[in-house]
Amino acid sequence: MYSFMGGGLFCAGVGNILLIVSTATDYWMQYRHSNNYMHQGLWRYCMPAKCFTHTDSIAYWDATRAFMILSLLACFLGIIIGIMAFIHYSSFDRFDKTFAAGILFFISCFFVFLAMAVYTGVTINYYGKRYGNWRFSWSYIIGWVSVVLTFFSGIFYMCAYRMHECPRSSNPQ
What pTM, to 2 d.p., does this model score? Predict the structure, then answer.
């Protein structure tokens, strides 16, 4: 049980760090415009010498930002509850922290998956038709890696929950 919880905490910790880096950096997409390479993230777009804040409130950027922030919060809460379960901190007797941490990691995975799907769909439809020389960049790739890590942290915590529940349910009272 503890090895599953440790693996879940490791995946969640790395996934949360990658979520922070992916959300905060400006390399979600790179493209060439007027013989210059430019890049943009969720908050800013950068030209060769200078970066500018996105001033337009475009729905897919707002949705992607919101889902990424919700994912960060869910993953952070899952880590806190997962640590409490790991050290057997018991403030609630009827509250299974292992199960709650697993559910929060799955919620985090769902939110980051939604963010990445919205950004991918709109970017491909918009930039794919207008620009020929563009590509997704490393911040975007880190976002997809965090989807996988938060998913596996949820899997690890659900396995730990099942291992913890099986001996309890097999003892008749």
Answer: 0.86
